[in-house]
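Researcher: Structure for this, please.
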Amino acid sequence: MINRDTVTILSLKPVTRNNSYDFYVKLNSEFEDPDAIEESISWWQEDHKKLNRLWWVLNYHSEEFDPERRLRAIIERKLDAIAGRRKKSSES
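Model: Predicted structure, token format:
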């Protein structure tokens, strides 16, 4: 799960299954396997909104994309890092 502090700091909103459907279709058509999705995470590593949306798609479609939670864990760490930097800069 995404850390509660990270959700608060980044103002992350839950994404419904219906609202994530278009992104799911895009992932399904553009990425051949979980390794390709993992590469996309590096492209979006500073875009917390896109990472959040990807996390929700992976959560809803875990059996297809992320049965072992590996990709969601990577996203959670990236979101935590973004939140940590944002918190640190706001404290300065």
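Researcher: Any notable elements?
Model: The radius of gyration is 13 Å. The mean pLDDT is 93.
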